[in-house]
Amino acid sequence: MNRAVANPRSIDALFVIESLRSGIPTRRSTRELPDLRQEISERIQHDLEQFEQDQYPPGRILWGQYGQGKTHALAAIEHQALDHNFAVSRITLSREISCHNLMDFYSEAAGKLRTPDSNIDGLARYLDRLGLDNVRRSVIFQPDRYVHNLPVLCLEAYLLAAGENREKLYADLMGTRLPASEFRSIYRQVCGERLPALRFRIHEHAYAYVSMMADLIQLCGFEGWVILIDEAELIGRLGRISRMRAYQNLGWLLGWASGSKPGAIYTIAAAASRLQDDLWYGGRYVDRDNMPPLAAERAGAEGAHEAEHDMRVFFKRAISRDSLVATPAKHSALVALLQEITRLHGIAYGWEADFDVERLLKHLGAQPVRTYIRATLEHLDLEMLYHEDSLPEAGVLAEHVLGSDGTDDGGDGAAAAPEGDDEAQGAEPDSADEEFGWSQF
């Protein structure tokens, strides 16, 4: 049997099979395989089309149990958005990148920004085509457009700079911030004047970088910025204060918060349903009830009402009909998917693959989509190599899933938050100056 990969068709099929085997969806796999979430794709399509009328729809949370295809759905949405001329960032949350520090989140998102016609992440090649005069005539230089003017000054200096200074300023624009003294020195060199006196607090002003990036993306010729967040349930691993901030930042990115809006940004956050069970409606500290008054307390008298209101809106909208749900796939859709996988397996490895997928579905019973895929691949591998016509057992296929810190999370990536405030857990203190640092220019 000749299993050599000899033509582009077999190479494409091999890439799809190996992406399924590794559990990492790719643009190629989302193109080649049947869409199990047609209803989700249609709602996303409707939202993206609103950008053509300069309307920016609020984002959505995608809920689903472990293994029901949330990550694959995000990959499909990425492909969908790129095809509609959006810039896209797809991020998987972790203990380090979990929305509670918006600047860290922005640095990750900007660093992974993809565009339809480029294999290189970021916006450097597009920014290099912009002239300073064009940027100054754009909305970016409108007074008070952002909560802080620092990213605008950084962009201005970047467009005037050359060589190493230009590279450093680009890194700052992408969220890897320069030390205050170095930024001040570079600004004076390239702009010929002192940097205005500014105080930048990351906790308060990081929104400016995110919003300006959305405007820059549109100025570079794209419809807007689609931000896709996977494993949002890992917010639940944070302490109370950091968790509150993560909810606030996520609500702002989704366009649910009152006050300033993020601009031409469309955010989808995928989360395991267990987050609701463990922290929103269960456990000793119920976030849905306790986070709104905590947000009011931390905001102080002047901002207490708005902070509490926004937090209540967040929890209400997160489980409203506006949210998306990755429900178990229909039987007919599963059959079509597994038959296509069988066909691609045969093309990839050059053999006559033939598999009764109905028999497999009946054998395994109700399982996550991922289990059916793994079972199909295992059966096809054994049949191809050893001519064995055996069906794997679901228990053998079950994955032992670890959380981002290596602890057992019960199978879906979620986990109850630690008891007590962040300070008691050894996490970052609440003071904005101490937690995130601030720059006095």
**Topology, number of strands:** 8
Strand arrangement, largest sheet?
3-2-5-6-1-7
Q: Termini distance?
A: 70 Å
How confident is the prediction overall: mean pLDDT?
Answer: 88
Strand content: 5-15%
The helix fraction, in percent, is 40-55%
Low-confidence stretches: 400-411, 423-441
The helix-strand sequence is: HHHEHEHEHHHHHEHEHEHHEHHHHHE
Major sheet, described briefly? 6 strands, mixed
Radius of gyration: 24 Å
Shape: globular
| Structure annotation, total helices | 19
Structural class of the secondary elements? alpha/beta
Give your account of this protein's structure:
With 441 residues, the protein is of the alpha/beta class. It has a domain at 130-207. It has helices at 8-22, 27-32, 38-49, 70-83, 102-111, 124-127, 132-136, 150-160, 163-173, 180-191, 202-219, 240-253, 274-280, 287-318, 331-349, 357-364, 369-386, 394-397, 432-436; strands at 60-64, 87-92, 113-114, 199-201, 225-230, 265-272, 324-326, 438-440.
What is shown here, in short?
The protein is an alpha/beta fold. It contains 19 helices and 8 strands. The chain is globular, with a radius of gyration of 24 Å.
What is the topological layout?
Blueprint: H1 8-22, H2 27-32, H3 38-49, E1 60-64, H4 70-83, E2 87-92, H5 102-111, E3 113-114, H6 124-127, H7 132-136, H8 150-160, H9 163-173, H10 180-191, E4 199-201, H11 202-219, E5 225-230, H12 240-253, E6 265-272, H13 274-280, H14 287-318, E7 324-326, H15 331-349, H16 357-364, H17 369-386, H18 394-397, H19 432-436, E8 438-440
Parallel strand pairs: 1-6, 1-7, 2-5, 5-6
Antiparallel strand pairs: 2-3, 4-8
Helix pairs in contact: 1-15, 3-4, 5-11, 8-9, 8-10, 12-14, 15-17
